[in-house]
Amino acid sequence: MKLIGSTTSPYVRKVRVVLAEKKLDFSFEQENVWVPETTIQQVNPLGKIPCLVMEDGSTLYDSRVIAEYLDTVSPVCKLLPPSGRERTEVKVWEALADGVLDAAILVFLERRERPPEQQSAKWIERQLGKVHAGLREMSARLGDSSYCVGTHYTLADVAAGCALGWLAFRFPDIAWRTDYPNLARLSDKLSERASFRDTVPFVA
């Protein structure tokens, strides 16, 4: 398999963490989707990363789809319960963490791609409101638990850890570690795993 992505994308990181946890072999191809010469639409018509190219040349895209598929490929480190309420809770956590990222990335792009005089303060405020509301909900759901769902490591923890890691990378001014010590504790614990240590976001 070949994963197309970047070292800065939290969605790509989620898939890389899953691949590492599942101990699956893959090659990693860097792709900058923001440059004119990008070829990403040859494999993903939506022009997004991550994109997983299968052995037969078919492709999967969207990190949630890819992660769910990969969990079926190997019995090692099952990240999704087979069915029922617990599986739904894991998927809700993933949607929550990804939603925080969706809003934060819109702010990042607004600030990066538009000159200051064209930026919408109202738009930025609205998106940051989603980020902060999402973090509050993540903290409330986690409580004093060691893991996001149940008593063991799941895809919920992968998604949450990647979201928190990207906020630390791109939004150091958001004081989630101070405001939500339980999220900081979770993030620190996850950072001890090789899958997280080896995928810390950086600008290549």
Automatic annotation (TrEMBL):
Tell me the keywords, alphabetical order: Transferase
Keyword Cytoplasm included in the entry's annotation? no
Query: What's an example Gene Ontology biological process for this entry?
Result: glutathione metabolic process
List where the protein spans the membrane.
Answer: none
Q: What is this protein called?
A: Glutathione S-transferase
Residue ranges constituting the GST N-terminal domain according to the UniProt record: 1-78
* Organism in which the protein naturally occurs: Telluria aromaticivorans
Lineage, highest ranks first: Bacteria, Pseudomonadati, Pseudomonadota, Betaproteobacteria, Burkholderiales
- Presence of keyword Transmembrane helix: no
Matching PROSITE patterns, A to Z?
GST_CTER, GST_NTER
Q: What Pfam families is this protein classified in?
A: GST_C_2, GST_N_2
The residue ranges of the GST C-terminal domain are: 83-204
Recorded GO MF terms: glutathione transferase activity; maleylacetoacetate isomerase activity
